[in-house]
Amino acid sequence: PAGLVKIDWRHGTTSGELRARTFDVVHGSFSYELQVDANQPDMRSPRVIAYAANRFLAVWEQSLNGVYGLRAKRGDAANWALNSIRVDARSESVSGAQLLIGPNNTALAAWQQADRLFVSRWAEATGNWSQPLEVGAGLSGVARELRAAGDATGSAIVVWTQRQQTGDDLYYALVAAGMPSVTAPTLLEVGSGSVDSPSVAMNAGGAAVVAWRQAGSQTLPDVVARVAR
Questions:
Q1: What pTM, to 2 d.p., does this model score?
Q2: What residues contact residue 41 under an 8 Å CB cut-off, 6+ apart?
Q3: DSSP bridge pairs for 47
């Protein structure tokens, strides 16, 4: 809302660090290049949101003895906070993180870890992340291709593929606003055949559309969509 665009990226080859610049739309100028979290081991896969005027939140995967944990830090156009926060407390590597803006200077992170899915909510008022909550608990198989979208209240829909014996199925679960709670996983597809490449969008009122590829008996897969209200 202040007309500022934050850009984060991984800089490096075998061991990367995260850097950022801010573009001022009004004045047409870039800020100096900043390190997101200086002097840290390999960092990758940054995600960033603008949650208020000149306020940004970033999450990324950071190596610790070869295991990538999920870390977060907030900042503005000129500076990042002094210390980053670890979002997850598990020993397995994180991947595929999603970061959604919420109301009242909050955010929701979703990620894959040890073939399972988790969510956590952050609030600027406390500076804390909630205890990670598992999504899709009780399902067998490997969770992959995580996607998430939210509405104006902070509620969200999480969509993912779950590897079963005969292929990948598509599931979704809903995340409540406020302190997150998660519904039971629900099978989304109605046809036969393996699923991949899901995509999801949700409007401010909470209506969502999910699109994916589904390969049945035909040679080429179909593109299928469903709307959830």
A1: 0.92
A2: 15, 62, 63, 64
A3: 59
